[in-house]
Amino acid sequence: AQKVTQAQTEISVVEKEDVTLDCVYETRDTTYYLFWYKQPPSGELVFLIRRNSFDEQNEISGRYSWNFQKSTSSFNFTITASQVVDSAVYFCALSGLPRGGYNKLIFGAGTRLAVHP
Amino acid sequence: EAQVTQNPRYLITVTGKKLTVTCSQNMNHEYMSWYRQDPGLGLRQIYYSMNVEVTDKGDVPEGYKVSRKEKRNFPLILESPSPNQTSLYFCASKSTGVGLSNSPLHFGNGTRLTVT
Known about the structure:
The structure holds two protein chains of two kinds.
Chain A: E1 3-5, E2 10-14, E3 19-21, E4 24-26, E5 33-39, E6 46-52, E7 59-61, E8 64-69, E9 74-79, E10 88-95, E11 105-107, E12 111-116
Parallel strand pairs in A: 2-12
Antiparallel strand pairs in A: 1-4, 3-9, 5-6, 5-10, 7-8, 8-9, 10-11, 10-12
Chain B: E1 4-7, E2 10-13, E3 19-25, E4 31-38, E5 42-51, E6 54-57, E7 65-66, E8 76-78, E9 87-94, E10 106-107, E11 111-115
Parallel strand pairs in B: 2-11
Antiparallel strand pairs in B: 1-3, 3-8, 4-5, 4-9, 5-6, 7-8, 9-10, 9-11
């Protein structure tokens, strides 16, 4: 069965601190995709990144970086020099191979990040 | 602007009163889906549709119905709402063309439903 675990329910940091959000996944598929979504206080879901299982290169986008390690089944998300605008709920998600033309996106429970001035 | 539009954003209703949450996308996406978001549970899939007239159950379909008569629309119907259906609902869509089966989902802005 596929599963995504985000063990950190809530994280609170002070502005300019670095923070890492953990994501651990389970899947039997050899090909799969991992995603991160951001949900700001306004409620919408914003796509941040997608990685496939064959690409373990870390990715950096501005203050955001992602560390994908197949050996530990983890896809962690780090925000460097956090800002108040980073306050949101962050979801990690997993998608496997299509089955019958369909592949479901499995979400973790989310991590609520509060960045204080 | 490419978007998924849900209506209404907020809805308060009473137990047993039928309601429909509409969802429309303007990206010509084949795939559409409904999720509900509950604290501590993340997003769970209710129903999905691979294309017009093709729908199937997700993980938590009980108490819900959907239809896909047109490619752009995918309404969620609660025939007899109950308090345990109080939740935040999201509609999503994506393209499923060749090489796009794992493209990101595009989400609507959500509908917060309260059933009293």
